[in-house]
Write a structure and sequence with these properties.
Helices cover 65% and strands 13% of the residues. With 644 residues, it is α+β, with helices and mostly antiparallel strands. Strand 10 and strand 11 form a beta hairpin.
Length: 644
């Protein structure tokens, strides 16, 4: 009996030990599967973090952890399924679902997303892709959580079995099993508190950063590698936020410079460029107001461009201010270098007084240098109590260079236009002088010779018919020379234009034209002399080309005044195909019109005729010599007729 009892007790103890062994083995399998699941979850989070970091920053370094995790995930997923198979069918089924979900996340989302980002970052930053990724990750995390909960429940059940078997066997076995259970529970709690929770917080922070919240931070309370992870994530987020702010500032500054450069390239008037420079400078520097000022003697500055925020009126346009020595603009003028003032208290002068009245605390200025001399300055005013940050002057230099370029371009264009106008005026004056010399000198002398020959012929005695015929022939030749000189003088400068104005001169051109002309002149009174001369030569060249080269059957001339400009159109139905670059006549016409600030458009299509369209501003009358008044008895007016 004792042997039976001992044997039974021993058998019970062996059964308890065997049961404990099997339960312990199952618990180990459960722990391994949970560890594998946690590792797999961390790798999935690494892929999500690496992919999102690359999409946000565009830096290939973020793909290194993604690629490493991508290589490890398939093997770890297979290991998880094998471990779960040793635990039980339910755990194996859950492990297979997790492996399938992870594989779907990689092949259907993460891999295509990274490939799309490598081709086009902007296309990978859509809210739809971000939401899809977040949904997939949340689904996987829920599956991992279910797997962990099921493992925990199974471990608890196995522990209960061991506890019951040990209680039935011996108290020592019960105590050992209970101690093991307590140790397992304590280890699980420590792992959850020291590892799982920080990792979850890091995962939530990664989701926030991926969603664009760069202000997210982790409490740096972890130890060891967890603490290193927390500090690294915080440093990374801070760096991303700083880089994003710098990128935003640089993009805004480059856009402002492009807008001003576009105005300069289009050749808009300098006042418009100065206003744009002041506005863009003020906005880029986040100033309350900004101004472009031009230096002028004696110690005066004139505001030529201004901008201010809605609450700050800014300096009045075209206002003049004395240069205060201690102000920013005074320092710029004295040193010809960038300068700043951080406190206007105690600085005498009208401009510093205005600055104090507006509540402005500091200002920064840079000089505008044109042709080696300081032309003016750009000033930005701020009411911030903090001084302007370092590098503000360097950021303003690009705007000063654009302003200097606009000034130089404007002055060069003005000098070129004035030079061309002087050349055209000198040529016209030379033509008038030659025409007058021919008319008043050579023609009159030749006419006198012809009259004297006629008088000598009339005084010949009878019987001198041969001599009389010679006198007559010589008189006719002299008269022909006079007519040739008259045509030459008319070609040099039309006298009818001086005497009667544009309408009679164009009528005379139409009468002498080699092709029929439909003439429509809607001009009342006299126009500035240079405008009339330019219009006359445009019509003359157009009709000459139509008759000599285009083989036209008819030409149309339309002349009128509209919107402060003389507008004319010469059109024919000839062969077309004229090349303005091959003929000096058309080139000279364009130079003449553009010298007056006008525009000449030449359209000549083969088989469709040629048209010359000119627009000449009448504002040239302000600088051109006064036109000769119309002669008495020759009224000017509109004309609409057809002439040969």
């Amino acid at each position: 009996m004792l042997c039976l009892l001992i044997g039974g007790a021993f058998a019970l103890l062996l059964a308890a030990i065997s049961s404990q062994h099997h339960a312990s083995l199952g618990a180990r399998h459960i722990r391994k599967s949970l560890i594998a699941a946690d590792s797999l979850e961390l790798l999935v989070l690494d892929t999500e973090t690496g992919a999102r970091g690359y999409i946000i920053t565009g830096q290939p370094s973020f793909l290194q952890p993604w690629q490493m995790a991508r290589r490890q995930i398939p093997g770890l997923a297979s290991t998880l399924v094998q471990l779960a198979r040793q635990v039980g069918p339910a755990q194996e089924a859950q492990a297979r679902r997790i492996a399938a979900g992870v594989g779907s996340y990689l092949h259907d989302y993460s891999d295509p997303l990274v490939a799309l980002a490598q081709r086009n970052l902007a296309a990978a930053r859509t809210p739809a892709l971000t939401a899809d990724g977040r949904h997939r990750v949340d689904t996987l995390r829920a599956q991992f959580s279910q797997f962990e909960q099921a493992g925990t429940r199974l471990a608890a059940a196995r522990s209960a079995q061991v506890d019951a078997a040990a209680h039935r066997a011996v108290v020592a076995a019960v105590a050992a099993v209970a101690g093991s259970v307590v140790l397992i529970l304590a280890s699980g709690g420590w792992v959850a508190r020291a590892v799982a929770r920080p990792v979850r917080r890091a995962s939530r922070m990664a989701d926030q950063v991926a969603g664009g919240d760069l202000a997210a931070r982790l409490p740096e309370t972890g130890r060891g590698e967890i603490g290193t992870l927390e500090r690294s994530l915080n440093a990374m987020t801070f760096s991303l936020a700083a880089g994003q702010e710098e990128l935003r500032r640089s993009a805004a500054e480059q856009a402002a410079l492009r807008r001003v450069a576009t105005l300069v390239a289009r050749g808009v008037p300098p006042p418009e460029v100065f206003g744009a420079v002041a506005e863009e400078t003020g906005r880029v520097l986040q100033a309350e107001c900004a101004a472009v000022a031009r230096f002028g003697p004696p110690d005066q500055v004139t505001v030529v461009g201004t901008w201010g925020t809605p609450g700050m009126p800014g300096l009045a346009l075209d206002s003049c201010w004395p240069v205060a020595e201690g102000s920013t603009i005074g320092q710029v003028r004295r040193t010809q270098a960038p300068a700043r003032v951080t406190d206007y208290r105690g600085i005498p002068g009208e401009l510093p007084a205005w600055v104090r009245e507006q509540g402005i605390r500091s200002s920064v200025g840079t000089p505008i240098t044109v042709e080696g001399g300081v032309w003016g300055a750009i000033i930005a005013f701020s009411d911030d109590a903090r001084p302007p940050p370092p590098g503000t002057e360097e950021r303003m230099l690009a705007f000063t260079e654009l302003a200097a370029m606009a000034i130089a371009n404007s002055e060069n264009r003005a000098q070129l236009t004035a030079s061309r106008a002087r050349v055209v005026a000198a040529a016209d004056e030379t033509r008038r002088r030659i025409e007058r010399d021919l008319h008043d000198g050579s023609q009159q002398q030749l006419l006198s010779i012809a009259l004297e020959l006629r008088a000598a012929q009339a005084q010949l005695p009878p019987g001198q018919e041969a001599v009389a015929e010679q006198y007559s022939r010589t008189a006719r030749e002299v008269t022909g020379v006079v007519e040739d000189l008259r045509k030459l003088a008319r070609g040099l400068h039309p006298a009818v234009l001086e005497r009667g104005g544009l309408a009679p001169a164009l009528k005379a051109l139409a009468r002498r034209s080699g092709v029929p002309v439909r003439l429509n002149v809607r001009v009342t009174g006299r126009l500035p002399r240079q405008a009339e001369v330019a219009a006359y030569y445009v019509v003359s060249e157009g009709l000459t080309n139509a008759a000599r080269h285009a083989r036209a059957s008819v030409a149309e001339v339309d002349v009128g005044v509209a919107e402060g400009a003389l507008r004319l159109l010469v059109r024919d139905d000839g062969d077309g195909g004229a090349d303005p670059g091959r003929g000096s006549g058309l080139i000279g016409l364009r130079d003449r019109v553009e010298a007056l600030g006008g525009r000449l458009e030449i359209v000549s299509v083969a088989g469709a005729g040629t048209s010359l369209a000119a627009t000449i501003p009448l504002a040239i009358a302000l600088s051109a010599p006064a036109a000769t008044p119309p002669a008495a008895g020759r009224p000017n007016g509109s004309a609409h007729r057809s002439a040969r």
